[in-house]
Every structure is written in structure tokens, then in C-alpha cells.
Design goal:
single chain, alpha/beta, 5-stranded mixed beta sheet
Length: 259
């Protein structure tokens, strides 16, 4: 096993790290190279702060050097050199309600295009509208129920989506919680089915269109919904990280074995 580390940049703090830890436990064999001693977490304030810092001086700097500059008190990060890192993954929320939609969309397009390779600048995964989207999957209906299929952008302000998720989890007895392998498979498949619906692949078998579920394609179709209807299709970043990390063939095999 390589001694090179994986750097994971998270928005917020513990909830996202806990979600990734649960994902790792659920797929302990498949994600064995994401062991504790090989994963380093950095908590970023929000995507636009990192974006603006990277774009200073009319060009992009190395993401690790910029993070070290942004977080001088993070001892582990300060002791990390670029050559210590083999892969960089970034997980952020949509955050599109915090500034004009057109500006947000333009910036997100640039970010997804720039952060498109985990071995270079890093690979960005977006949650729509927030990381809490991992907690709204229904055991039977996935993410396609009327109450959780789409979410209004205007209702995202003042932690509106977090409150919605909290209420849903308190009142619903059918929430599929991301706490075991079987549930992660249900949640992941629901997100893939939702992405298939979002990008209008209604006639194709799910596993044959995994290669279409790229972050830039998902963002493109999300932006159409946002601009036309002021809503976003609820999707979690974590199943798409799993798809990217393990590959379509392995995901298909895992799902078919367990169902």
C-alpha cells in the first residue's frame, strides 16, 4: 500500500467527516486504501472563499499551498508537502442562494472544470443543495417522492434545508439512514436513479449510463432547473464520490450481488 496521503477538503466540520467515515466502514474492503493514517481532512469555510483565493493574481495556484496559507494553524496541513498527497477530493454544498444565481453558476462551472482530476488540482463533488441530502432517502421511494424530489432555492436561506431534513428525519419512519452497507447501497442507487432522471436518460438501463453521471453534466442540468424554476434536484455528493473512486464496473457488481 502506498504511503501517499489522500487529502479531503470539507465544507463545515464534523458532519461531513462522519458521513465519509460511515461510507468507509460500509465498504471497508473496497475503500481499504482510505484508512485513517492515509486520509487527512481540512475544513474550509465555503467554496467561494477557496475559489477567490485560488483565483488571485490572475491565475490558479496549487490547492494545497493555498489551503496551507488559508489555515496557518492547522499543524497537520502545515507539515504536509505537495508530494505527500496522491489524491485530493473536495466536498462542498451548492451555496447558490448566497449571491446572484448567474454569478454563482458561472463560478461553479469554472470550479467544476478546474477541479476535475483528483491527482492534479483535485476532484470536486457537490451536494444539492447541501450535504444533508444524504439523509433524505426513503426506503421504498428513494429520492423521487414529491416531498423530497426538488427543493426551492429560496427556502435554502437561514438553514432552511437543514431544518427540512431535521423535520423529515424526526417525523418519518421510512428514512434510509447511511449507517450500514445495505443502506448505503440503497441510497447510492437512489442518487444514481435521480441523476439519470435529471439528465433525461429515461430509456436507458441505469448501469449503462454511469459514464454520463459526471459532475459537470449534473451541474449543467441542475442549473437549468435553478434558472428556469428556482428549484434544485436533491442529490448527495457521496454516492458519486463512491462511483468515481471504485468505478462503474465495481459499483454495478456490488449492487447486483446485494440485490
Amino acid at each position: 500500500m502506498s504511503s501517499a496521503k489522500v487529502l479531503i477538503v470539507l465544507e463545515g466540520e464534523k458532519p461531513e467527516e462522519n458521513t465519509l467515515a460511515r461510507l468507509q466502514r460500509a465498504f471497508s474492503e473496497e475503500l481499504a486504501d482510505l484508512s485513517e493514517d492515509l486520509v487527512e481532512y481540512v475544513y474550509s469555510s465555503h467554496i467561494y472563499g477557496l475559489y477567490n483565493k485560488l483565483k488571485e493574481d490572475d491565475g490558479f495556484s496549487d490547492v494545497i499551498e493555498v489551503l496551507k496559507e488559508l489555515y496557518p494553524d492547522d499543524e497537520a496541513l502545515q507539515n504536509t508537502n505537495r508530494e505527500d498527497i496522491s489524491q485530493v477530493y473536495l466536498f462542498f454544498d451548492l451555496d447558490i442562494h448566497k449571491q446572484p444565481i448567474e454569478k454563482s453558476c458561472d463560478q461553479l462551472n469554472e470550479l467544476v472544470q478546474f477541479f476535475d482530476n483528483e491527482t492534479e488540482n483535485g476532484k470536486l463533488f457537490l451536494s444539492y443543495p447541501m450535504a444533508e441530502a444524504i439523509n433524505i432517502c426513503d426506503v421504498e421511494n428513494g429520492l423521487m417522492s414529491d416531498d423530497r424530489k426538488l427543493f426551492c432555492i429560496d427556502k435554502c436561506v437561514n438553514d432552511g434545508f437543514k431544518h427540512f431534513v431535521d423535520d423529515l428525519n424526526r417525523d418519518s419512519q421510512t428514512i434510509c439512514r447511511a449507517n450500514c452497507r445495505e443502506n448505503w447501497l440503497i441510497i447510492s442507487k437512489a442518487n444514481y436513479e435521480k441523476a439519470k432522471w435529471l439528465i433525461h436518460l429515461t430509456s436507458d438501463e441505469l448501469f449503462s449510463v454511469f459514464d454520463r453521471m459526471q459532475q459537470d453534466t449534473i451541474l449543467q442540468h441542475q442549473q437549468a432547473l435553478i434558472k428556469q424554476d428556482n428549484v434544485v434536484a436533491t442529490l448527495s455528493a457521496f454516492p458519486f464520490f463512491l462511483l468515481e473512486y471504485l468505478g462503474a464496473g465495481k459499483i454495478r457488481k456490488i449492487v447486483e450481488i446485494n440485490h
